[in-house]
Backbone:
């Protein structure tokens, strides 16, 4: 029953995000002003940093706003305490996750191969006031993820598309039952899509604003 309930949650989240876009919500790579629904000073600080990063163009290879909102909704819905991200870029997706982690008391471990982008991300996390629970690891994530040993609630893959299947293979054993594997731009990762849609232990749906966001539940 829990597995079926979680699948319903994933489908509703996907529909909600798409409906938001259809009704004129933030689209593409622009966030605009801080949303009126910012509930706390901590949330407003993160949203302000996101908006400023958008305005000055520090958005290289980041998720569009609608997908970022989806990441936050999904992570907070499962009460994520441990999130692992492949592909930090300049830290925008990490800040969307931070909005959830502020509520859940969790942490984000994020991997980035480019030192310049990692430095920009760290600056964003500090400015947003979320650097205390985000760890940026530089270098080849294919090697570095093998050092992870603790259970993971949410994995987010947004790095080299040809490496998606390798990331899945290495991290899936650490994902707790009921945890999520999220992957961006899955239209360009056909081997990964085949793997998450043919494994009986997984349930996968697709959403996102033309970016192909794969949402995979590890069944209980």
Residues:
């Amino acid at each position: 029953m829990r597995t079926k309930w979680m699948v319903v949650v994933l489908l509703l989240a996907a529909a909600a995000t798409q409906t938001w876009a259809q009704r004129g919500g933030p689209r593409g790579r622009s966030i605009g002003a801080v949303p009126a629904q910012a509930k706390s000073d901590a949330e407003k600080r993160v949203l302000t940093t996101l908006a400023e990063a958008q305005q000055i163009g520090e958005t290289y290879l980041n998720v569009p706003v609608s997908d970022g909102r989806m990441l936050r909704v999904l992570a907070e819905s499962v009460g994520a305490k441990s999130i692992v991200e492949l592909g930090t870029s300049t830290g925008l997706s990490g800040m969307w996750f931070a909005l959830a982690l502020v509520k859940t008391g969790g942490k984000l471990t994020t991997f980035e191969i480019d030192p310049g982008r990692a430095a920009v991300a760290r600056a964003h996390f500090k400015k947003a006031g979320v650097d205390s629970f985000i760890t940026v690891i530089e270098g080849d994530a294919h090697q570095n993820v093998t050092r992870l040993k603790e259970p993971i609630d949410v994995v987010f893959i947004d790095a080299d598309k040809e490496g998606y299947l390798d990331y899945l293979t290495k991290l899936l054993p650490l994902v707790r039952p009921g945890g999520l594997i999220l992957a961006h731009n899955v239209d360009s990762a056909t081997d990964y899509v085949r793997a998450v849609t043919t494994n009986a232990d997984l349930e996968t749906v697709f959403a996102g604003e033309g970016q192909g966001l794969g949402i995979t539940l590890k069944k209980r």
